[in-house]
């Protein structure tokens, strides 16, 4: 049991209490305790009962629930509620926009207890006719169900990373004399993973197979398995796993073949042969040797996507890719001034303690009232606090930024004199996400043309596996950033990874700098930068083209130069 799971179970308990019409006072009690626990900084697992009592709203019954969760992963009230709830109802409760009240109505009036029944009821139109639902709700339920179905079995790289690496390590321990490698999408650091592919080579494959068969963590799919490939599912996750078996002598070429994307394997190395055709010659003993033998520069696995990496490798033009350690500072972060969890001081001190030279704070602007956006007085107050902290923490430096909402017409969210008071402005869209491609592109173009925009934040607003981004014409947007000297963010939050890596090469070719921004809303959020680096590398990003790889002095000069060019405009 960990902190997040405890919060999740308490939340589920509240939903179920609402579903089953428990005493409203009791429900409210749980809700206020949950809110305090979510806001708190401390890990529930590390808090003593006494410390828990001191948290607002946490009474005796919540403490008992937490004790029980720590010991048994559940608690009596939750067990009772779960017992009288069909499992399909639990799934329906996860659908966005359907609170416990609506789920209860669907259950009582239409007898719906599964997502399948819900889909049928929506398609026949009877859901719209229930009081409080209507056509719009019905349509959005259908969309959510379809989106959910299309994403079943898919995981964010960041959510599955530890599990896959842990699983592979356990295999390495189990099969001491075998060579084991993760191949496929995971080896190429794809942002979404729907299957894990593992290559095993051994002189004694029969032995390997019989050991694998006995693993309890895998449910085998015999119908889809053959002598060289086994398929199954990791039982505690909804994740497909594929094993490829080979003799040790075949390991290098199999590894290359299973790691490269199809498009990569079909890329031509010379006039007559593709990567795949060169691979099956098996006239090399290692990955490195394969590339040298074919007069190719080594192509890092994350770049083997079939863009133009083979062309680049022929001309020795694969650059040295960005690394975590190249990043010198962290831009685009939130504090308690808007919707962040930690104070400006905490965010700054933690950033400094990690060895970075600077922090860019960019809380939400005033229109983002749902996220505690800053009124002008609060901006002034924050700037005074930054000045003070900068004196105290020097040479570490906090840069004054803002994440300015791009309003519906493309304008920014403060008058010019306020915008001029920031060192940098991240301009982002957070509202009216349903524009068509023309309007959405024009809106961004106007924000890019605004001389105060330093960085274009999360360009499409997508949330992977949750919501599509608004459509934009990427080329037009990137071209405009090139002309206006606007930096584009790679938002490193694993849900976003926006700018998409497929556009990184185009941006680099146009001379547009990128910034790896964690969009941290708490101190731990800084660690997301590594996912931004991973996708940046997929697109060929270098240290030289990364804004926050600049040193403190260099970025100070960069911001100053932008200010100067604004005045001359
Ligand atoms: Zn944002
Ligand atoms: Zn943000």
Q: What would you say about this model in short?
A:
The chain is of the alpha/beta class.
Describe the fold and architecture:
- There is one protein chain.
- With 569 residues, the protein is α/β, with parallel strands linked by helices.
- It contains 26 helices and 14 strands.
- The chain has helices spanning 3-19, 24-39, 49-53, 60-72, 76-83, 87-93, 100-110, 115-123, 126-129, 134-150, 157-174, 184-187, 205-213, 251-259, 262-265, 275-279, 287-293, 309-314, 344-353, 376-393, 416-419, 437-449, 474-484, 504-509, 529-538, 552-567, and strands spanning 155-156, 179-183, 192-193, 195-201, 218-220, 229-234, 239-246, 329-333, 358-364, 397-405, 424-428, 455-456, 487-491, 514-517.
- Helix 20 (376-393) links the parallel strand 9 and strand 10.
- The longest helix is centred in the N-terminal third of the chain and has 18 residues, at 157-174.
- The radius of gyration is 27 Å and the shape is globular.
- The model has no long low-confidence stretch (mean pLDDT 94).
Number of helices: 26
**First and last CA, distance:** 58 Å
Number of strand elements: 14
- What is the arithmetic mean of pLDDT? 94
């Amino acid at each position: 049991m960990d902190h997040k799971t405890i919060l999740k179970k308490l939340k589920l308990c509240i939903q179920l209490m609402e579903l089953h019409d428990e005493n409203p006072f009791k429900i409210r009690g749980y809700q206020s305790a949950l809110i305090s626990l979510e806001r708190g900084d401390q890990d529930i697992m590390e808090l003593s009962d006494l410390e828990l009592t001191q948290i607002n709203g946490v009474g005796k019954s919540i403490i008992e629930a937490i004790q029980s969760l720590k010991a048994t992963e559940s608690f009596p009230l939750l067990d009772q509620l779960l017992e009288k709830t069909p499992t399909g109802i639990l799934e329906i409760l996860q659908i966005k926009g359907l609170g416990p009240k609506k789920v209860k109505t669907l259950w009582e009036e239409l007898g719906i207890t599964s997502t399948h029944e819900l889909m049928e009821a929506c398609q026949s139109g009877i859901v719209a006719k229930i009081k409080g639902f209507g056509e719009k709700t019905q349509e959005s339920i259908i969309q959510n169900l379809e989106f959910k179905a299309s994403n079943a079995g898919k995981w964010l790289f960041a959510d599955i990373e530890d599990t896959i690496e842990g699983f592979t390590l356990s295999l390495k321990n189990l099969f001491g004399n075998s060579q084991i490698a993760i191949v496929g999408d995971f080896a190429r650091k794809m942002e979404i993973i729907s299957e894990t592919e593992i290559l095993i080579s051994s002189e004694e494959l029969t032995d390997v197979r019989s050991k694998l068969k006995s693993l309890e963590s895998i449910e085998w799919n015999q119908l889809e398995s053959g002598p060289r490939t086994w398929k199954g599912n990791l039982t505690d996750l909804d994740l497909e796993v594929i094993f490829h078996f080979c003799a040790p002598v075949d390991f290098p070429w199999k590894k290359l073949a299973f790691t490269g994307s199809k498009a990569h394997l079909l890329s031509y190395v010379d006039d007559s042969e593709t990567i795949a055709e060169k691979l099956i010659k098996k006239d090399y003993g290692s990955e490195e040797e394969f590339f040298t033998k074919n007069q190719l520069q080594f192509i890092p696995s994350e770049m083997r996507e079939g863009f133009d990496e083979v062309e680049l490798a022929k001309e020795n033009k694969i650059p040295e890719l960005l690394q975590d350690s190249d990043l010198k500072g962290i831009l685009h972060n939130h504090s308690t001034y808007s919707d962040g969890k930690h104070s400006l001081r905490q965010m700054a001190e933690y950033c400094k303690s990690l060895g970075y030279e600077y922090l860019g704070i960019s809380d939400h602007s005033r229109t983002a009232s749902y996220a505690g956006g800053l009124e002008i007085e609060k901006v002034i107050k924050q700037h005074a606090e930054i000045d003070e902290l900068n004196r105290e923490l020097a040479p570490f430096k906090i840069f004054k930024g803002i994440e300015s909402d791009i309003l519906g017409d493309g304008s920014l969210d403060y008058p010019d004199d306020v915008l001029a008071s920031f060192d940098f402005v991240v301009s982002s869209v957070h509202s009216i996400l349903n524009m068509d491609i023309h309007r959405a592109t024009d809106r961004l173009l106007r924000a890019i043309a605004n001389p105060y925009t330093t960085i274009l934040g999360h360009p499409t607003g997508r949330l992977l596996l949750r919501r599509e981004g608004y459509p934009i014409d990427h080329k037009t947007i990137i071209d405009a950033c090139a002309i206006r000297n606007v930096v584009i963010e790679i938002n490193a939050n694993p849900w976003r990874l926006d700018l998409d890596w497929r556009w990184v090469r185009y941006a680099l070719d146009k001379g547009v700098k990128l910034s790896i921004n964690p969009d941290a809303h708490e101190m731990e959020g800084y660690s997301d930068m590594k996912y931004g680096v991973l996708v940046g590398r997929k697109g060929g990003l270098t240290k030289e083209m990364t804004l926050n790889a600049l040193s403190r002095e260099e970025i100070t000069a960069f911001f100053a130069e932008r200010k100067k060019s604004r005045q001359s405009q």
